[in-house]
Amino acid sequence: MRATLDETTVDIAVSDSGDGVPKREQAVIAGGLSISQLDHSRGLGLWVVSYVAESLDGRLRFEDDGTEVVLADLPVE
Questions:
Q1: Rounded to whole angstroms, how far apart are CA atoms 75 and 58?
Q2: What whole-number distance in Å separates Cα of residue 23 and Cα of residue 69?
Q3: Residue 24 and residue 36 in contact, taking contact as beta carbons nearer than 8 Å
Q4: What is the 3 state secondary structure string of 20-49?
Q5: Please, which residues bridge with residue 3 across strands?
Q6: Separation between Cα atoms, residue 77 and residue 65, nearest integer Å
Q7: In the list 5, 20, 33, 45, which could disulfide-bond 27, CB 3.0-4.6 Å?
Q8: 58/10 Cα distance (integer angstroms)
Q9: What angle, 0 to 180 degrees and rounded to 10, lies between the N-to-C axes of helices 45-55 and 23-30?
C-alpha cells in the first residue's frame, strides 16, 4: 500500500500479485459498464471503497503495471 499527497488530492494505492480483478468487473465497479445478471462484482469490498471514494467526491480506478493496483483518488479539503 502507498499513499501520496499533493495540494488537491490524496491517492491511496493497494497492489498485490494475485489473480487481479477481471476487466469486466473493473468496468462495472468503475462505472463503464452497467450492472446486469452477467456483469457484476463477486465481492463487496471494492464496492465499499468505490462508494466511500464517490461520497468524498473522489474516484476508484485500476492500474496494471505487472501487479494489480487499485487506486482511490480523494480530494483534500
A1: 6
A2: 12
A3: no
A4: CCCHHHHHHHHCCCCCCCCCCCCCCHHHHH
A5: 12
A6: 30
A7: 33
A8: 9
A9: 30
Of 42, 61, 59, 62, the C-alpha closest to 51 is 59
pLDDT, residue 46, reads: 81
Burial of 41 (0-12, 13-18, 19+ CB in 10 A): middle
The helix (H) or strand (E) run that includes residue 18 is none
pLDDT of 17-70, one tens digit each? 777 777 777 777 776 666 655 555 666 778 888 888 889 999 888 887 666 788
The answer to whether residues 76 and 7 touch, using CB atoms and an 8 Å cutoff, is: yes
Strand partners, 15: 69
CB neighbours (10 Å) of residue 54? 13
Contact 64, 16 (CB under 8 A): no
